[in-house]
Amino acid sequence: MDLFARAKKFGIQTEFLDGQGHRRVTDAAALRIILDALPAGIPRRLLDQAVVIRSGHPARTELNQAATVPLRWKTVAGIKVIAEGETHDRVIVWPEDLPVGSYRLHLSDASGISEQVPLMVAPPKAFGGDFDRCWLVAVQLYGVRSARNWGIGDFTDLEGLIELAGGLGADGIGLNPLHALFDDRPGDCSPYSPNSRLFLNPLYIDVEKLPEFQPGAIAGNSEAIARLRAGDIVDYAGVAALKWRALRFAFEAFKADPKAERRQDFEQFRSQRAPLLSRFACFEALRHKIGKPWWEWPAEWRQPDEAGCASLRRGPDAAEIEFVEFVQWTADRQLQACKELAARLGMRVGLYLDVAVGVQSDGFDAWNEQSAISRHLAVGAPPDPLNTAGQNWGLAGFNAAGLEIASFEPYREMLRASMRHAGAIRLDHVLGLKRLYLVPHGFDAAQGVYVQMPFEALLAATAQESVKHRCVVIGEDLGTVPEGFREKMAEWGIWSYQVMMFERDDRGSFRGIDHYAANALVTFNTHDLSTYAGWRSFSDLKLKRSLGIDPGESDDARWHALTMLSDALRHHAIDSHDFYAVAGFLARTRSRLLAISLEDLLGVIDQPNIPGTVNEHPNWRRRLPVAIEAMTSAIDLAALKAATRERSRGTT
């Protein structure tokens, strides 16, 4: 079969218009690598794809031309038959009372062909939230200072932030991804480049809060901790060395004298997260022991194997495996305590967590889901006005065929992990649910292709998990958005993400408050954009130019933007132009969630992250200038409460 014909069969768009309107044709060599990296999928004759049914909606599915009737079908959950029937024409009309869930659909036609496909019965929409209009404090947890942490924000600091935000009338805290990174690569600190999206980053644990904490674990390190605490940049290597040592001491104490209640809770956690937790712990033990990427491991370990993991747990690595589980249990329970505190304070959202668009190819998720995650391909974006060369994020993402083979369970597992303790999550680059821009290793970002994803099935899975966990889902829908995409998302109850910096018309005018959607999170900026103080002072433009990066905006254009902002504020009878004026403007929109950055409340000039840089800028390392204990004095509380009054909870 011709290369381009094969690509079409895989849903690969080999030609497209980029964000600048230029026609792009993928290089044949790049296309061949992309095709080789994708699983073949299951050849089918009766139905081409998964069946999606929305509960309460009439549903029918047309059979392929190759099918011969009559055709028998049955919907199965495990060994239980949920429903069955027969059709004598080329359409299956589904029963209206199928329970919400994920099933296997068994098909047998008159010619003897038998096939199976996933069948998903979804709620009509994702969970819509049980609140009207409220606001959140957004923060990069690693950058939080306090009088007691070890140089990186931790879950006890998060409790302090929850109490602070609750006192201000906010309904939650928005956080950077908390995904597990690589414990032996502390400098590899981007929360958006995880080892696994299924587990937590142990550096956020408050070790001193553990019942098993041993002060001797940090004996002689008080000066080092004080230095880490005082630094303006997170010293990940220094923090990691101390925390991992203290965690190992705590684990040894737990093993030596486990309190019955603690041991019972630990075993309950292991059971709840099985088999993924056990597999993750085995992967980490093997990764440390072998010291190479998993595709270079001995053959018996290159694929997850339950019998092999069980054997590993009985061998000399048993304690190391249990230690990984102990650390994840500790992190989970401390994050759970934050969720419970927010609930006690009456916060209607609680924790709003970010979910990265992909994972590192040598991490656990890529090893665990080798069919559903393509390690040879990187997720990115084609050239556009802000990134004229395109973007390669260096992350492995899901692929359509592998997800369908696994009945979309890897995607659901990812959602469940983030929804465990969240009232809302944000899916980074949600456009990837419909199509992913994939770049083969060794090629530049402009040589990628768009690959179609099973959009309807992924929306159905999202709705299932969202309703089950009562968790609002927000899609980060910035960038080159396909026609009809936002409408489809809204139809399924997935919220939009509207950033005021980008909400401008062709003349550069900021759009008015009526422009913003109700089911949306609205914010002035993001972690990848300038803070308000930096934007207003041109600091972001100066910094990028000093780094040799084209900021994509001239000083004249920025002066024009500032004028347009003043015009928009005045149009809504807001006379000042400080950040609280902007917050007040956004608070008046009908959008049900408003996120206000803690950096903006504190007047921080430097932005947390500058895309396109690695070591030129301290990405994911900057610490806030003010400790939690002093924040109420540093924030203009009266101005903030005035700005957010109409969407704040009652405060004393």
UniProtKB/TrEMBL annotation:
InterPro entries tied to this protein = GH (IPR017853), Glyco_hydro_77 (IPR003385)
Under Enzyme Commission nomenclature, its number is 2.4.1.25
Protein family per UniProt: Belongs to the disproportionating enzyme family.
Q: What is this protein called?
A: 4-alpha-glucanotransferase
Give me the segments passing through the membrane: none
On the tree of life, the source organism's domain of life is: Bacteria
Q: Which GO terms describe its biological process?
A: carbohydrate metabolic process
- Which GO molecular function entries does the Swiss-Prot or TrEMBL record give? 4-alpha-glucanotransferase activity
Q: Which Pfam families match?
A: Glyco_hydro_77
| Keywords (A to Z) from UniProt | Carbohydrate metabolism, Glycosyltransferase, Transferase
- Reaction(s) catalysed (UniProt annotation): Transfers a segment of a (1->4)-alpha-D-glucan to a new position in an acceptor, which may be glucose or a (1->4)-alpha-D-glucan
